[in-house]
Protein backbone atom coordinates (compact mmCIF):
# COMPACT_ATOMS: atom_id res chain seq x y z
CA UNK A 1 0.00 0.00 0.00
CA UNK A 2 2.93 2.31 0.71
CA UNK A 3 0.96 4.77 2.75
CA UNK A 4 2.39 6.03 6.02
CA UNK A 5 0.67 8.49 8.32
CA UNK A 6 2.97 9.40 11.21
CA UNK A 7 1.76 10.14 14.71
CA UNK A 8 3.38 13.54 15.11
CA UNK A 9 6.25 14.96 13.07
CA UNK A 10 7.83 18.40 12.90
CA UNK A 11 6.79 20.95 10.31
CA UNK A 12 9.33 23.34 8.76
CA UNK A 13 7.25 25.31 6.29
CA UNK A 14 8.50 28.73 7.33
CA UNK A 15 11.78 30.59 7.79
CA UNK A 16 13.67 27.75 9.48
CA UNK A 17 16.35 27.31 6.79
CA UNK A 18 16.80 31.04 6.39
CA UNK A 19 17.34 31.73 10.08
CA UNK A 20 19.58 28.70 10.69
CA UNK A 21 21.70 29.67 7.67
CA UNK A 22 21.89 33.19 9.04
CA UNK A 23 23.07 31.93 12.44
CA UNK A 24 25.70 29.78 10.70
CA UNK A 25 26.84 32.66 8.50
CA UNK A 26 27.30 34.83 11.55
CA UNK A 27 29.25 32.08 13.27
CA UNK A 28 27.02 32.18 16.32
CA UNK A 29 26.24 28.52 16.85
CA UNK A 30 26.61 28.04 20.59
CA UNK A 31 25.06 29.48 23.75
CA UNK A 32 25.51 33.10 22.69
CA UNK A 33 23.79 34.91 19.84
CA UNK A 34 20.88 37.14 18.97
CA UNK A 35 18.39 34.38 18.16
CA UNK A 36 18.36 33.18 21.76
CA UNK A 37 17.21 36.48 23.20
CA UNK A 38 14.91 36.97 20.22
CA UNK A 39 13.20 33.65 20.97
CA UNK A 40 12.94 34.57 24.65
CA UNK A 41 11.31 37.89 23.76
CA UNK A 42 8.89 36.34 21.28
CA UNK A 43 7.84 33.76 23.83
CA UNK A 44 7.40 36.37 26.56
CA UNK A 45 5.29 38.44 24.18
CA UNK A 46 3.20 35.45 23.13
CA UNK A 47 2.63 34.28 26.72
CA UNK A 48 2.05 37.80 28.11
CA UNK A 49 4.86 37.42 30.65
CA UNK A 50 7.88 39.59 31.42
CA UNK A 51 10.71 37.13 31.24
CA UNK A 52 11.46 33.76 29.64
CA UNK A 53 14.74 31.82 29.73
CA UNK A 54 15.50 29.52 26.82
CA UNK A 55 17.21 26.28 27.75
CA UNK A 56 18.39 22.93 26.47
CA UNK A 57 15.22 20.89 26.99
CA UNK A 58 11.94 20.73 28.82
CA UNK A 59 13.65 18.44 31.29
CA UNK A 60 16.31 21.05 32.10
CA UNK A 61 13.56 23.69 32.44
CA UNK A 62 11.85 21.48 35.01
CA UNK A 63 15.09 20.74 36.81
CA UNK A 64 16.02 24.43 37.11
CA UNK A 65 12.51 25.19 38.38
CA UNK A 66 12.91 22.61 41.14
CA UNK A 67 16.33 24.04 42.03
CA UNK A 68 14.87 27.54 42.17
CA UNK A 69 11.85 26.33 44.16
CA UNK A 70 14.33 25.21 46.80
CA UNK A 71 13.60 21.49 46.49
CA UNK A 72 16.30 19.70 48.45
CA UNK A 73 17.18 16.09 49.33
CA UNK A 74 14.33 14.27 51.09
CA UNK A 75 11.78 17.00 50.38
CA UNK A 76 8.51 15.75 48.93
CA UNK A 77 7.17 16.82 45.54
CA UNK A 78 3.63 15.89 44.52
CA UNK A 79 3.62 14.57 40.97
CA UNK A 80 1.36 12.88 38.40
CA UNK A 81 1.57 9.16 37.58
CA UNK A 82 0.15 9.37 34.04
CA UNK A 83 2.53 11.45 31.96
CA UNK A 84 5.95 11.37 30.32
CA UNK A 85 8.59 10.31 32.84
CA UNK A 86 10.69 13.44 32.21
CA UNK A 87 8.14 15.38 34.27
CA UNK A 88 9.17 13.43 37.37
CA UNK A 89 12.85 12.50 36.88
CA UNK A 90 14.10 15.97 37.91
CA UNK A 91 12.63 15.33 41.37
CA UNK A 92 15.16 12.50 41.64
CA UNK A 93 17.96 14.73 40.29
CA UNK A 94 17.39 16.78 43.47
CA UNK A 95 17.35 13.60 45.61
CA UNK A 96 13.81 14.51 46.60
CA UNK A 97 10.87 12.13 46.95
CA UNK A 98 7.88 12.02 44.61
CA UNK A 99 4.39 11.17 45.82
CA UNK A 100 2.06 10.23 42.97
CA UNK A 101 -1.39 11.86 43.08
CA UNK A 102 -4.14 10.53 40.80
CA UNK A 103 -5.42 12.35 37.72
CA UNK A 104 -8.99 13.35 36.88
CA UNK A 105 -10.79 12.93 33.56
CA UNK A 106 -8.62 15.62 31.97
CA UNK A 107 -5.62 13.26 32.63
CA UNK A 108 -4.19 16.14 34.72
CA UNK A 109 -3.83 16.18 38.51
CA UNK A 110 -7.08 15.67 40.40
CA UNK A 111 -7.48 18.66 42.75
CA UNK A 112 -9.94 16.78 44.98
CA UNK A 113 -7.42 14.05 45.71
CA UNK A 114 -4.64 16.62 45.99
CA UNK A 115 -6.67 18.39 48.66
CA UNK A 116 -7.54 15.24 50.58
CA UNK A 117 -3.89 14.17 50.52
CA UNK A 118 -2.90 17.53 52.01
CA UNK A 119 -5.69 17.45 54.60
CA UNK A 120 -5.48 13.82 55.64
CA UNK A 121 -1.87 12.79 55.17
CA UNK A 122 0.08 15.87 56.20
CA UNK A 123 0.46 18.23 59.11
CA UNK A 124 1.28 21.90 59.52
CA UNK A 125 4.06 22.77 61.95
CA UNK A 126 5.69 25.97 60.72
CA UNK A 127 6.10 24.17 57.43
CA UNK A 128 3.97 21.62 55.67
CA UNK A 129 5.05 18.14 56.74
CA UNK A 130 4.43 14.52 56.06
CA UNK A 131 3.95 12.35 59.14
CA UNK A 132 7.57 11.21 58.75
CA UNK A 133 8.80 14.80 59.06
CA UNK A 134 9.68 15.40 55.39
CA UNK A 135 8.77 18.81 54.03
CA UNK A 136 6.29 18.95 51.15
CA UNK A 137 7.76 21.65 48.93
CA UNK A 138 6.18 21.65 45.52
CA UNK A 139 3.65 20.28 43.06
CA UNK A 140 4.42 19.45 39.45
CA UNK A 141 1.25 19.95 37.45
CA UNK A 142 1.33 18.60 33.89
CA UNK A 143 -1.06 20.01 31.28
CA UNK A 144 -1.43 16.69 29.50
CA UNK A 145 -1.74 16.60 25.67
CA UNK A 146 -2.51 20.34 25.50
CA UNK A 147 -5.39 20.11 27.95
CA UNK A 148 -5.13 22.16 31.14
CA UNK A 149 -5.33 21.13 34.76
CA UNK A 150 -7.91 22.69 37.08
CA UNK A 151 -5.56 25.51 38.08
CA UNK A 152 -8.08 27.47 40.17
CA UNK A 153 -8.46 24.59 42.61
CA UNK A 154 -4.80 23.62 42.50
CA UNK A 155 -3.58 27.18 43.15
CA UNK A 156 -6.02 27.52 46.09
CA UNK A 157 -4.59 24.37 47.67
CA UNK A 158 -1.01 25.45 46.95
CA UNK A 159 -1.56 28.85 48.57
CA UNK A 160 -3.17 27.27 51.60
CA UNK A 161 -0.20 24.96 52.19
CA UNK A 162 2.60 27.18 50.90
CA UNK A 163 3.52 24.87 48.04
CA UNK A 164 5.44 25.97 44.96
CA UNK A 165 3.59 25.14 41.75
CA UNK A 166 5.64 24.07 38.76
CA UNK A 167 3.55 23.87 35.62
CA UNK A 168 4.82 21.37 33.11
CA UNK A 169 3.39 23.07 30.03
CA UNK A 170 5.69 21.16 27.68
CA UNK A 171 2.67 19.83 25.78
CA UNK A 172 0.45 22.88 26.16
CA UNK A 173 2.23 25.86 24.61
CA UNK A 174 -0.59 28.14 23.48
CA UNK A 175 -3.42 26.67 25.56
CA UNK A 176 -5.22 29.23 27.74
CA UNK A 177 -8.30 29.70 29.90
CA UNK A 178 -11.27 31.34 28.19
CA UNK A 179 -13.13 32.12 31.41
CA UNK A 180 -12.93 32.00 35.18
CA UNK A 181 -10.31 33.52 37.47
CA UNK A 182 -7.52 32.82 34.98
CA UNK A 183 -9.31 33.97 31.85
CA UNK A 184 -6.71 34.79 29.18
CA UNK A 185 -3.91 33.10 31.14
CA UNK A 186 -1.72 30.68 29.23
CA UNK A 187 -0.61 27.26 30.45
CA UNK A 188 2.67 27.80 32.28
CA UNK A 189 1.91 31.37 33.41
CA UNK A 190 -0.32 30.69 36.41
CA UNK A 191 1.90 28.84 38.90
CA UNK A 192 5.29 29.89 40.26
CA UNK A 193 7.12 28.29 37.31
CA UNK A 194 6.14 27.27 33.80
CA UNK A 195 8.18 24.88 31.65
CA UNK A 196 8.05 24.37 27.89
CA UNK A 197 9.67 21.86 25.55
CA UNK A 198 10.71 22.11 21.91
CA UNK A 199 11.50 18.46 21.40
CA UNK A 200 10.84 16.93 17.99
CA UNK A 201 7.23 15.92 18.53
CA UNK A 202 6.03 19.00 20.42
CA UNK A 203 3.84 21.65 18.79
CA UNK A 204 6.94 23.63 17.86
CA UNK A 205 10.45 22.24 17.84
CA UNK A 206 14.07 23.33 17.95
CA UNK A 207 15.31 19.76 17.56
CA UNK A 208 15.81 19.68 21.29
CA UNK A 209 15.16 22.63 23.52
CA UNK A 210 12.95 24.21 26.12
CA UNK A 211 12.09 27.34 28.00
CA UNK A 212 11.08 28.38 31.46
CA UNK A 213 9.17 31.28 32.91
CA UNK A 214 8.30 32.25 36.49
CA UNK A 215 5.86 34.61 38.20
CA UNK A 216 8.85 36.62 39.42
CA UNK A 217 10.97 37.97 36.52
CA UNK A 218 14.09 38.12 38.73
CA UNK A 219 13.77 34.42 39.34
CA UNK A 220 13.90 33.89 35.57
CA UNK A 221 17.10 35.96 35.46
CA UNK A 222 18.58 33.72 38.11
CA UNK A 223 17.51 30.60 36.22
CA UNK A 224 19.25 31.97 33.12
CA UNK A 225 22.33 32.61 35.26
CA UNK A 226 22.30 29.04 36.60
CA UNK A 227 21.82 27.66 33.09
CA UNK A 228 25.05 29.30 31.94
CA UNK A 229 27.34 27.80 34.60
CA UNK A 230 26.58 30.50 37.21
CA UNK A 231 29.43 32.75 36.21
CA UNK A 232 29.39 35.56 38.76
CA UNK A 233 32.08 37.75 37.22
CA UNK A 234 32.13 38.47 33.48
CA UNK A 235 35.93 38.81 33.34
CA UNK A 236 37.21 36.18 35.72
CA UNK A 237 36.01 32.65 36.22
CA UNK A 238 34.28 33.30 39.53
CA UNK A 239 31.38 31.05 40.46
CA UNK A 240 29.47 31.50 43.72
CA UNK A 241 26.88 28.84 43.01
CA UNK A 242 26.66 25.47 41.31
CA UNK A 243 25.70 26.12 37.71
CA UNK A 244 24.49 23.97 34.84
CA UNK A 245 25.19 23.72 31.14
CA UNK A 246 21.51 24.07 30.31
CA UNK A 247 21.45 27.08 27.98
CA UNK A 248 19.86 26.81 24.55
CA UNK A 249 22.18 27.27 21.56
CA UNK A 250 21.76 29.96 18.91
CA UNK A 251 21.23 27.28 16.23
CA UNK A 252 18.33 25.83 18.16
CA UNK A 253 16.96 29.31 18.81
CA UNK A 254 17.12 30.19 15.09
CA UNK A 255 14.81 27.25 14.46
CA UNK A 256 12.69 28.35 17.40
CA UNK A 257 12.19 31.90 16.14
CA UNK A 258 10.93 30.53 12.82
CA UNK A 259 8.66 28.04 14.59
CA UNK A 260 7.18 30.74 16.84
CA UNK A 261 6.10 32.60 13.70
CA UNK A 262 4.12 29.51 12.70
CA UNK A 263 2.74 28.59 16.12
CA UNK A 264 -0.69 30.29 15.67
CA UNK A 265 -1.17 28.50 12.35
CA UNK A 266 -0.11 25.15 13.87
CA UNK A 267 -2.63 25.61 16.68
CA UNK A 268 -5.34 26.51 14.18
CA UNK A 269 -4.67 23.35 12.16
CA UNK A 270 -4.54 21.12 15.24
CA UNK A 271 -7.94 22.49 16.23
CA UNK A 272 -9.41 22.10 12.77
CA UNK A 273 -8.14 18.51 12.46
CA UNK A 274 -9.48 17.69 15.91
CA UNK A 275 -12.91 18.89 14.77
CA UNK A 276 -12.71 16.61 11.72
CA UNK A 277 -11.88 13.59 13.87
CA UNK A 278 -14.64 14.57 16.27
CA UNK A 279 -17.19 14.64 13.48
CA UNK A 280 -16.00 11.27 12.15
CA UNK A 281 -16.02 9.49 15.52
CA UNK A 282 -19.37 10.98 16.64
CA UNK A 283 -21.60 8.18 17.90
CA UNK A 284 -18.99 5.46 17.35
CA UNK A 285 -19.74 2.69 19.82
CA UNK A 286 -16.30 1.18 20.36
CA UNK A 287 -14.23 4.27 21.09
CA UNK A 288 -14.67 7.96 21.83
CA UNK A 289 -12.53 10.95 21.00
CA UNK A 290 -11.57 12.41 24.38
CA UNK A 291 -12.74 16.02 24.78
CA UNK A 292 -10.66 18.91 26.12
CA UNK A 293 -11.78 21.03 29.06
CA UNK A 294 -14.61 23.32 27.97
CA UNK A 295 -13.33 26.49 29.69
CA UNK A 296 -10.05 26.58 27.75
CA UNK A 297 -8.84 27.16 24.24
CA UNK A 298 -6.48 24.21 23.79
CA UNK A 299 -3.55 23.91 21.39
CA UNK A 300 -4.95 20.36 20.84
CA UNK A 301 -1.43 19.01 20.56
CA UNK A 302 -2.33 15.33 20.84
CA UNK A 303 -5.60 13.53 20.18
CA UNK A 304 -6.77 10.65 22.38
CA UNK A 305 -9.20 7.87 21.64
CA UNK A 306 -10.64 6.04 24.61
CA UNK A 307 -11.12 2.40 23.71
CA UNK A 308 -14.41 1.05 25.00
CA UNK A 309 -13.31 -1.92 27.09
CA UNK A 310 -16.89 -3.22 27.36
CA UNK A 311 -16.47 -4.41 23.78
CA UNK A 312 -12.77 -4.38 22.92
CA UNK A 313 -10.46 -6.64 24.87
CA UNK A 314 -7.52 -6.56 22.43
CA UNK A 315 -4.30 -5.23 23.94
CA UNK A 316 -2.97 -1.81 22.95
CA UNK A 317 -0.05 -3.58 21.32
CA UNK A 318 -2.37 -5.65 19.11
CA UNK A 319 -4.27 -2.52 18.11
CA UNK A 320 -1.12 -0.53 17.38
CA UNK A 321 0.39 -3.32 15.26
CA UNK A 322 -2.83 -3.84 13.30
CA UNK A 323 -2.99 -0.11 12.50
CA UNK A 324 0.70 -0.02 11.65
CA UNK A 325 -0.04 -2.63 8.96
CA UNK A 326 -2.46 -0.11 7.47
CA UNK A 327 0.24 2.57 7.48
CA UNK A 328 -1.12 4.38 10.51
CA UNK A 329 1.18 5.21 13.40
CA UNK A 330 -0.50 5.30 16.79
CA UNK A 331 0.73 4.86 20.35
CA UNK A 332 -0.56 3.93 23.75
CA UNK A 333 -0.61 6.57 26.45
CA UNK A 334 2.41 6.22 28.77
CA UNK A 335 2.99 3.41 31.22
CA UNK A 336 2.37 4.67 34.75
CA UNK A 337 5.51 6.29 36.15
CA UNK A 338 4.99 4.75 39.59
CA UNK A 339 5.22 1.33 37.93
CA UNK A 340 8.57 2.04 36.27
CA UNK A 341 11.56 0.36 37.91
CA UNK A 342 13.14 3.44 39.55
CA UNK A 343 9.80 4.45 41.08
CA UNK A 344 8.29 1.16 42.20
CA UNK A 345 9.00 1.83 45.88
CA UNK A 346 7.49 5.32 45.88
CA UNK A 347 4.22 6.29 47.48
CA UNK A 348 1.02 6.63 45.47
CA UNK A 349 -2.22 8.26 46.54
CA UNK A 350 -5.58 6.83 45.48
CA UNK A 351 -4.62 5.93 41.92
CA UNK A 352 -7.82 4.93 40.13
CA UNK A 353 -8.24 7.05 37.02
CA UNK A 354 -4.57 6.84 36.03
CA UNK A 355 -4.54 3.01 35.65
CA UNK A 356 -8.03 3.18 34.11
CA UNK A 357 -6.90 5.53 31.34
CA UNK A 358 -3.51 3.84 30.96
CA UNK A 359 -5.36 0.74 29.71
CA UNK A 360 -7.66 2.62 27.36
CA UNK A 361 -6.03 5.63 25.69
CA UNK A 362 -4.69 5.41 22.16
CA UNK A 363 -3.09 8.50 20.56
CA UNK A 364 -3.86 8.94 16.87
CA UNK A 365 -2.06 10.92 14.14
CA UNK A 366 -2.00 14.66 14.84
CA UNK A 367 0.78 16.21 12.73
CA UNK A 368 0.04 19.68 11.38
CA UNK A 369 0.65 18.44 7.81
CA UNK A 370 -2.00 15.71 7.91
CA UNK A 371 -4.62 16.12 5.17
CA UNK A 372 -8.36 15.79 5.52
CA UNK A 373 -8.22 12.73 3.30
CA UNK A 374 -5.66 11.13 5.62
CA UNK A 375 -7.78 11.89 8.67
CA UNK A 376 -10.76 10.21 7.00
CA UNK A 377 -8.60 7.19 6.17
CA UNK A 378 -7.35 6.96 9.77
CA UNK A 379 -10.86 7.15 11.22
CA UNK A 380 -12.19 4.64 8.69
CA UNK A 381 -9.42 2.11 9.35
CA UNK A 382 -9.76 2.44 13.13
CA UNK A 383 -13.52 1.90 12.89
CA UNK A 384 -13.08 -1.13 10.64
CA UNK A 385 -10.52 -2.63 13.00
CA UNK A 386 -12.52 -1.98 16.15
CA UNK A 387 -15.67 -3.44 14.61
CA UNK A 388 -13.75 -6.60 13.74
CA UNK A 389 -12.25 -6.80 17.24
CA UNK A 390 -15.50 -6.12 19.10
CA UNK A 391 -17.25 -8.80 21.04
CA UNK A 392 -20.94 -8.29 21.68
C1 LIG B 1 8.26 16.30 26.32
C2 LIG B 1 7.94 16.34 27.76
C3 LIG B 1 8.91 16.66 28.73
C4 LIG B 1 10.36 16.78 28.43
O1 LIG B 1 10.72 17.66 27.49
P1 LIG B 1 12.16 17.45 26.77
O2 LIG B 1 12.31 18.71 26.01
O3 LIG B 1 12.04 16.24 25.93
O4 LIG B 1 13.19 17.30 27.85
C5 LIG B 1 8.52 16.76 30.05
N1 LIG B 1 7.25 16.55 30.42
C6 LIG B 1 6.30 16.21 29.53
C7 LIG B 1 4.90 16.01 30.02
C8 LIG B 1 6.61 16.07 28.18
O5 LIG B 1 5.66 15.71 27.31
Task: Characterise the protein shown here.
The chain is 35% helix and 16% strand. Helix 4 links the parallel strand 2 (76-79) and strand 3. The strands form four sheets. The chain has an eight-stranded mixed sheet, with helices on both faces. The chain has a four-stranded antiparallel sheet with strand order 11-13-16-14, with helices on one face. Strands 4-5 form a two-stranded antiparallel ribbon. The protein contains eleven helices and 16 strands. With 392 residues, the chain is an alpha/beta fold. The chain is globular and about 70 Å long. The model has no long low-confidence stretch (mean pLDDT 96). Helix 1 (16-26) runs antiparallel to helix 8 (250-281), helix 5 (111-121) packs parallel to helix 6 and helix 8 crosses helix 11 (372-389). The protein has two domains: 16-259, 3-Layer(aba) Sandwich (Aspartate Aminotransferase, domain 2), CATH 3.40.640; 263-389, Aspartate Aminotransferase, domain 1 (Alpha-Beta Complex). It has helices spanning 16-26, 34-47, 58-68, 89-93, 111-121, 151-161, 217-227, 250-281, 316-324, 353-358, 372-389, and strands spanning 52-55, 76-79, 97-101, 122-125, 127-130, 136-142, 164-168, 176-177, 193-197, 210-214, 287-289, 296-297, 303-307, 331-332, 347-349, 361-364. The longest helix has 32 residues, at 250-281. The structure holds pyridoxal-5'-phosphate. Pyridoxal-5'-phosphate binds next to helix 3.
Amino acid sequence: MGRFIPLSIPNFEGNEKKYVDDALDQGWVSTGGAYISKLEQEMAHFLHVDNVAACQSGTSALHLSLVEAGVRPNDIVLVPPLTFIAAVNPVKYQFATPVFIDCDDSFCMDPIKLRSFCEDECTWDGSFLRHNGSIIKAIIVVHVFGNMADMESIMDIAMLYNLKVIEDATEALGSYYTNGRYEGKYAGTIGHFGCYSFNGNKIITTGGGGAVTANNPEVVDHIRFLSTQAKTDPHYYIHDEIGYNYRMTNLQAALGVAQMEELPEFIRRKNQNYQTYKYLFEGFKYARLVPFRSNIYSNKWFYSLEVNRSYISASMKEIIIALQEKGIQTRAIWGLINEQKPYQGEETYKLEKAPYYAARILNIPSSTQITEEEIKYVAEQIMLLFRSLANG
